[in-house]
Write a structure and sequence with these properties.
Oligomer: heterodimer
Number of domains of chain B: 3
Number of helices of chain B: 19
Strand content of chain A: under 5%
Shape of chain B: elongated
Order of helices and strands of chain B: HHHHHHHHHHHHHEHHEHEHEHEEH
Structural class of chain A: mainly alpha
Shape of chain A: flat
Number of helices of chain A: 4
Radius of gyration of chain B: 26 Å
Helix content of chain B: 55-70%
Chain lengths: 97, 479
């Protein structure tokens, strides 16, 4: 029961934190924020990694984990880079003047 | 707790802390870029944590290394490639694509665990039922996210038209039917039979398609944001499946934050989430009732030449860019025109409606890409009081966001939506391809006003002509 009850507390507090973190976002940042948050949702790569490590010699499990890891990393790496590309345009402008 | 467990625990805590700081920082212009990097570092830490933990257990077998490296290389390479190559105008579909892949990842993990239970279940969840529930949630939400996002991407790219039957009421029955099938397969799964799994994957995949397909282009960003929230939920569910608290926190944070962002976007468009999801295209319902529509009585059309002359004589010009500008990819030409005007001493600013562009904030990104100084971008609340003191307003591919009906006509479906009060300016030029209605399908009273002139043509072409005319008048951006 211990992992479960902890897990539900974590779920609850994490949700509350997420609700609080984005209180007032200027519309300018909606697009970057969306793509940044999207990159973070690729955190399932942790699950994919865990799966591969625990898979042992089970080949189908290894393959599925590997494909899953690929999808997740596509999301994470692509998401962060594209967000950075967008944000770079803002910061370049505001520091120049 | 051995050393590795303690290390892993502290890495996880640090990662969650940095992730929270990252999301927080992303909501402020100044800190956004650092925050994004912080979040990326946090993700790397989270991955390191997994390796550290397994070092403490029994190490990582050679097999696993091979598959980890293979998956990582492919995913990282493709992700980086897409992120580097994609055009800024294609940002909404890119986010949709990434998001869909995140959903797919959660789906695969849950499927793998469902088909081949992990060798050491005592480390994860002993509670059979909870594990099943989380697998079911992960599969259900994951596949909806995947197909929904892919459909969203295809629609935004213009690859996929909305079939006519999808606009009608039939789709509600189909979607409800798919929902029922999903529920049946979920209950059979929870009762211990594994046969429902495939049915659940298929029915929820079709449900994702069925829900997303009827939604119109301008509402799509809201859907993507919602699907983004879903992929957070799917990640949290996957966290229950593999027993990772880090995953649960991060997934819950993204899920909740995505929900808030979705709500904020809806507010900006004066749409409720329910009407976005179930109303279908707004235009379809409005076209049948006559209250909002009507004929234009007093349209003044003018040539590019006249427009150039008026612009040259103006002191204060405000540009109102919209969806049409983004679609025509005319932001660079626009920037040349404004450079020319600035060169001859005209004060140029841009009034950005919260939902201008193809998704909220997208217009800012596009204009920033075209080298428009950040200070010239005025948000609606700042821009509105300044319109009475403005000589010329140039409306480029925007329609509903400048419709005075939203303020004046309580019977209008747009009533109550925050709009830019461009009609307060002395002269308004609307650059538009034709008299077609905006996304809402509602007549725009602005076009009928005496101080509004229409310049018909594609935004990019008109701006190009405008630039030529301005040069002939002796204005160029060089000085």
């Amino acid at each position: 029961m211990s992992f479960l009850s902890e897990a539900f507390w974590v779920l609850l507090l994490g949700s509350l934190l997420g609700l609080e973190l984005i209180g007032k976002v200027p519309p300018t940042l909606h697009t970057p924020l969306m793509s940044g948050a999207n990159a973070i949702s690729g955190i399932t790569m942790i699950a994919a990694l865990t799966l591969i490590i625990k898979a042992g010699d089970n080949l189908p499990l290894l393959v599925m984990g590997s494909v899953s890891l690929g999808f997740a990393l596509f999301n994470v790496v692509g998401g962060f880079l594209v967000t950075d590309r967008m944000l770079a345009m803002f910061s370049r402008k505001s520091t120049r003047k | 707790m051995n050393f590795f467990e303690i290390l892993k625990f502290s890495i996880d805590l640090l990662a969650v802390f940095l992730l929270a700081l990252g999301i927080k920082g992303l909501s402020k212009v100044r800190s956004a870029r650092e925050a994004n990097r912080l979040a990326a570092i946090a993700m790397t830490l989270a991955a390191v944590g997994v390796f550290v933990e397994s070092l403490g257990d029994s190490g990582i077998p050679f097999n696993s290394w091979f598959w980890i490296i293979a998956g990582s290389i492919v995913g990282t390479f493709l992700g980086a490639l897409v992120a580097k190559k994609v055009a800024m105008t294609a940002m909404p579909e890119t986010v949709a694509l990434f998001n869909g892949c995140g959903g797919m990842s959660s789906l695969l993990v849950a499927l793998a665990v469902a088909i081949f239970p992990l060798s050491s279940p005592e480390e994860t969840l002993n509670m059979d039922l909870v594990e099943k529930i989380s697998i079911v949630i992960s599969v259900f939400v994951g596949s909806i996210t995947f197909t929904g996002s892919i459909v969203a991407m295809a629609k935004l790219q213009g690859w996929l038209p909305t079939p006519a039957w999808m606009q009608s009421k039939i789709r509600h029955f189909i979607n409800i039917g798919l929902g029922v099938i999903s529920l049946v397969s979920i209950s059979s799964l929870l009762n211990g039979s594994d046969s429902g799994l495939l049915l659940l994957v298929i029915s929820s995949a079709f449900l994702g398609v069925g829900v997303t397909l009827p939604i119109g282009g301008a509402d799509m960003p809201v859907v993507i944001s919602l699907l983004n929230s879903y992929s957070g939920v799917a990640a949290a569910a996957a966290g229950f499946v593999v027993g990772s608290q880090l995953l649960i926190v991060a997934g819950a944070m993204v899920g909740a934050a995505g929900l808030i962002l979705t709500q904020v976007m809806c507010n900006g468009m004066n749409r409720s989430l329910v009407s976005v999801l179930f109303g279908g295209a707004l235009g379809a319902t409005v076209a049948t009732d006559s209250s909002g529509s009507g004929d234009y009585l007093n349209i003044t059309s003018c040539s590019v030449e006249e427009c150039a002359l008026t612009l040259e004589a103006a002191e204060r010009v405000v540009i109102v860019p919209g969806y049409g500008l983004a679609v025509a990819q005319a932001q660079h030409t626009l920037r040349e025109v404004t450079r020319a005007l600035e060169g001859s001493g005209v004060d140029v600013t841009y009034a950005i409606h919260p939902v201008a562009g193809r998704m909220p904030g997208h217009m800012n990104v596009l204009l920033a890409e075209a080298d428009v100084p950040y200070e010239q971008l005025k948000e609606m609340d700042v821009a509105n009081p300044e319109f009475p003191a403005t000589d010329v307003v140039l409306v480029l591919g925007a329609n509903d966001v400048v419709n005075p009906q939203a303020k004046n006509d309580p019977s209008s479906p747009l009533y109550g939506m925050p709009v830019l009060d461009v009609q307060e300016a002395r002269t308004v030029f609307v650059i538009k391809r034709g008299m077609s209605a905006g996304y809402s399908g509602i007549k725009n009273d602005l076009f009928d006003l005496a101080n509004t002139s229409m310049v018909f043509g594609d935004a990019k072409k008109v701006l190009g002509d405008l630039l030529v005319e301005l040069k002939e008048l002796g204005i160029s951006g060089k000085n």
